[in-house]
User: Fold these one by one.
Assistant:
Number 1:
Amino acid sequence: MTTQTAPVARNLPTTQPGRPPQGTTAVSGGTVGADQPAADRGRTSIADVVVVKVAGIAAREIPGVYDMGGGLSRTIGAVRDRVPGGRPNVGRGVKVEVGERQTAIDLELVVEYGVSVMDVAQDVRENVVSAVERVTGLEVVEVNITVNDVRLPDDEESAAVTGARVE
């Protein structure tokens, strides 16, 4: 006696076979089947924004980093931060390119006056690589840093004096 089985229909995401949804990266290409260990069943995908946020937080942790982003993005970010209910954008000044197993990160920094730019850049690079690799499991192939500006000690004082024209 022979029996025939019909194929089982599954509700799977409609993406290209073997590729994660756009904006995400497959970190582990797991397998399917009850005979596989539980840790290997399925696939893990990491969205690009995860790498952006981890890198942004890690860069801001370093002493000597005053702010991140270019002039216009910092201005818009300052206004956004002052709006009630607004949250700071930890991804400002961070751009990433993510592949299947690797990522490259570009950072735009504003450093405090008096600190060694090269030392701050080295510390930022080391902290970002460590944090991104630890949190995401992706290999960081490069961290490019652009220092756009230096925050001078009298920047806030002059802004406060010129801002108050009348009493």
Note: The chain is about 30% helix and 25% strand.
Number 2:
Amino acid sequence: MKYFNKTVFSLAVAGMCLFSASMNAQFLGGMRLKDTDDGPKGQFMVYGSFDYSKTNTPSSSSSSVGTSANAGVPVGVGYFINNNDAVGVNYAFARDVVNDRTVYKQNEAGVWYSPSFSLGKYFALIGQIDAHYVWGQKLSDVSASMENFNGYRLRAYPLFAIFLGGGWALKFKFAELSMLQTKVKGEGWTKNYVAGVSGSTFGVGISKNFNFKKRADK
């Protein structure tokens, strides 16, 4: 019951985050498209990002690779159930290597829901909620060996979209509200919470819409 209450609370906070994004969109002149408007209803979307960094010093080297820092911007596939709302599945990964040895790797996969508000022809404000199962390995501080862990992540975040034409769009994530809980066998839960705007919550991704329905009509 303890963890259930925390999960319910986190989902409620995530809903409040999206409601706040909705109010901000309306304040900026955003609007929800009608079903009769020309929009993405019935289209599929593929999106994501990929980051790689490496640091070399005279005594050591380190690198990280993944969909973004701490798997913050996943890769995914979605379907527009109307002109404003999309649902889908996504996957994220992150890996850290120090002196040619992997010290941390994390995978997460789950489902997402995303409402959007149009800010004219070329811009939109988007909210997204992710619910992920998490698994991976990390270097033990005690045994110097890799330990398996698993858990879950609940996350809500806003995105600012710039439409480039041809179904392409750039998307900028600029804030986050999330809860990540992981557990190594025989140990207690490790909990990480993020709320606000910072360098770690910023991310950039790209998406492409595919309209198979129009192709079939032709």
Note: Residues 18 and 127 are 6 Å apart (CA to CA).
Number 3:
Amino acid sequence: MFRSGVGFLALFGAGWWLLGTSAFDGWVRPVAIVVGCALALGLMLAAQRLLPASAGGPLPAHLRRRFHRINALQWLLIIVIAVVCGRAGSPVLIPPLVALVAGLHFLPLAVVFSQPRLRLPAALLVLAGTGGLAVWATHGPDTTVRLVVGVTAALSLWTTAAWTVTGAASAPREPVPTP
């Protein structure tokens, strides 16, 4: 289910989607949540069904160490952002700043995984964070900051997951030898 990172992209996309849909009231939010969860689940099932078992296999030790360092730095920065913004009384800045950090972390991951397509979520998450900061800087409501960041980030991760699945599904397959 987590082949080629599709599971992670789908689940983190769902998390961003939940943040973005927190801007909605009434019946719209539960419907949006169901739609987002169904989309994430659909992406994971499609990856399970369409990606080869070898997709996203174990990394060599030196690349695994780089991957862990990149993710550790990302999570450390996210914790620092949450603490500093919380203590400064500006929790609205947490999502856009986290989106910037998450986006930037995809750049070295593109190298580690030899996946240039990871530049797409890098760019789109940076765009999501920048958009959220622009809404905040122009004194837009906190709900709009969450909506802009959350929905843009979710759609960027889900788009990358779908691109991964469809790219693998349309790739020529090696013939299965017959006995």
Note: Residues 142-170 form the longest helix (29 residues).
